[in-house]
């Protein structure tokens, strides 16, 4: 299971951030119960994510455990020079959650499929902020990405969209 950028500074900003973090924590508990590795990506660098800056730590609401893996990344694509591919070598399917839907979640889903992984994007397990310039609410952006990514075609892997309640049950 992969958790993308669920950092303290982002939880109050994204749509339904606290509820999202709690839902991801519950899903991670079920993943561990089923013997699935939990990996959390943490964005570092850039104006909002200077290492050690307040709020850049992963959310406490996730209830990460010592056996979970934390991987720092410097790009929207979670695979870019991060070691994520090596950490997931034995995973046939990645259950993916996190923020932001239209940035790091989207880029990481596409990168995973390009590397031959199948992805289950958790339908209610990712979030973003509204885009007033495009006239889109966060809910619309999330729904649009669920639809677009579930229809993506790539010979390397597939993307399926499933609600959290139907994963690891």
From TrEMBL:
Gene Ontology molecular function: any one: hydrolase activity
UniProtKB keywords: Hydrolase
Pfam families xref list: Isochorismatase
Source superkingdom: Bacteria
Segments forming domain Isochorismatase-like: 2-131
Name this protein carries in UniProt: Isochorismatase hydrolase
């Amino acid at each position: 299971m992969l958790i993308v950028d669920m950092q303290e500074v982002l939880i109050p900003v994204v749509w339904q951030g606290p509820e999202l973090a709690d839902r991801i924590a519950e899903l991670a508990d079920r993943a561990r119960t089923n013997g699935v590795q939990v990996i959390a990506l943490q964005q570092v660098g850039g104006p909002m994510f200077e290492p050690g800056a307040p709020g850049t730590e992963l959310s406490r609401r996730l209830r990460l455990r010592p056996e979970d893996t934390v991987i720092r990344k410097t790009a929207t694509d979670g695979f870019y020079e991060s070691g994520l591919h090596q950490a997931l070598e034995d995973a046939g399917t990645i259950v993916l959650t996190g923020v932001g839907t239209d940035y790091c979640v989207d880029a990481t889903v596409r990168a995973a499929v390009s590397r031959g992984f199948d992805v289950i994007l958790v339908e209610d397990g990712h979030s973003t902020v509204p885009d007033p310039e495009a006239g889109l609410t966060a809910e619309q952006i999330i729904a649009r990405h669920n639809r677009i990514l579930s229809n993506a075609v790539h010979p390397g892997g597939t993307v399926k969209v499933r609600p959290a309640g139907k994963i690891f049950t």
